[in-house]
Amino acid sequence: HVEFIKRLDKKHDELEYWMTEHLRVSGIYWGLVALFLLDKPAALDHQQIVTYILGCQNSDGGFGGHTNHDSHLLYTMSAVQVLLMLGALDQIDTKRVTDYVVGLQRDGMVSGDEWGEQDTRFAFIAVAILSQLGTLEQLDTQGIVDYVRSAMNYDGGFGSGPGGESHAAQVYTCLACLAILGQLHVVDRERLSGWLAERQLKCGGLNGRPQKLEDVCYSWWVLSSLEILGRVHWVDRQKLCGFILSAQDEERGGIADRPGDVPDVYHTCFGMAGLSLAGFKGYALKPVDPVYCMPKDIVERAGLGSWTDKVPESWRE
Predict the structure, then answer these.
(1) Does residue 204 come out as left (phi exceeding 0), alpha (psi in the -120 to 50 range) or beta?
(2) How far out from the chain centre does Cα 185 lie?
(3) 264: closest CA among 216, 310, 307, 311?
(4) pLDDT at 197 over 70
(5) 46-54 and 24-37 helices cross at what angle (nearest 10)?
(6) In the chain, how long is the greatest CA-to-CA distance?
(7) Among 149, 163, 257, which residue's Cα sits nearest to residue 207?
(8) Number of Cβ atoms within 10 Å of the Cβ of 103
(9) DSSP state of 287
(10) Which of helix, strand or coil describes residue 102?
(11) At what angle do helices 265-277 and 237-246 cross, to 10 degrees?
(12) How many percent of the chain have pLDDT more than 70?
């Protein structure tokens, strides 16, 4: 898997390399998380990565997915996480990034970029970025909590916005957002835990919503949510690990969305993170933080592990 990730930036003669240019910053984040969890952080040139990431910052303070690409919260989040993992967060102008993020909030809701798309993902991302920068107080956090609550459904899940269908990835973003803000008490823990546990299929894999296929990436979205809820034991973790491992490419490395498909760095990252949360011992994986999706030791060193102290007392078993 380490060699698979190292090869990703050497495929300049392949069309796929150029077609995914807009995902380059996030691709680096996904690859680094997998390498850090495998305890192989030195597999990539850290200084080269830092230089590249800094070159993706635009005049508005945000980061694009590649050099000369428009700023977006998704890539700004990835850039900040990469720099945090590599101990280089002090190399960016915190105020510029903070101003960019704060400028995307309107009436509590947060847009992904200047064009105004709103989504519960962006509410979480804004909170996560500024918590890492130590400037969270500059956001209207109560407005964000109100917006996230408005996206909660009868089944306990969360959608992309008010009235949106419950989706495991949106559940993660909403739970992680509320965890950082110390507002998890607004969640219907029992109902949501049950909905998440129902995402496991006979093959052991997890899907994102009813009537959908299993996908390795939901090993992260579902299991991280259950970990935040203190209910990770509500799914068969051994069977889930078997499903993730069956989606590996045993010859070239990497993990795909499901067995028989082509592996990619996105599913490799979230497959490793899922294995870590499930307690898989085969790769001696480092523990992953279920809120920030970075190794726990890095999160704790950055002073971000305090979200666990804000979990409702009634959840502590």
Answers:
(1) left
(2) 22
(3) 216
(4) yes
(5) 150
(6) 56
(7) 257
(8) 13
(9) P
(10) helix
(11) 160
(12) 95
- Note the Cα 83 to chain centre separation in Å: 15
Task: Give the Cα separation of 174 and 122 in Å (integer).
Answer: 10
Do 205 and 243 touch, CB atoms closer than 8 A? yes
pLDDT at 223 over 70: yes
The single-letter DSSP state of residue 282 is T
Residue 63 pairs with which residues in a beta bridge? 57
Amino acid, single-letter form, for residue 122: F
Q: Are 147 and 108 in contact (CB under 8 A)?
A: yes
CA 162/CA 284 separation, integer angstroms: 41
pLDDT tens string 9-53 = 766 666 465 566 677 899 999 999 999 999 999 999 999 999 999
Angle, helix 73-85 to helix 94-102, in steps of 10 degrees:
150
With contact defined as beta carbons under 8 Å apart, do 232 and 315 qualify? no
- Is residue 264 classed as helix, strand or coil in its secondary structure? strand
Cα torsion for 229, 235, 239, 240, to the nearest 10°? -40
What are the pLDDT digits (tens) for 265-310? 999 999 999 999 999 998 899 999 999 999 999 999 999 999 999 9
Q: What is the pLDDT of residue 316?
A: 84
Report the length, in residues, of the chain: 317
pLDDT band at 67 (very low <50, low <70, confident <90, very high): very high
Average pLDDT for 44-65: 96
> Could you give the CA distance from residue 28 to residue 60 in angstroms, rounded to a whole number?
22
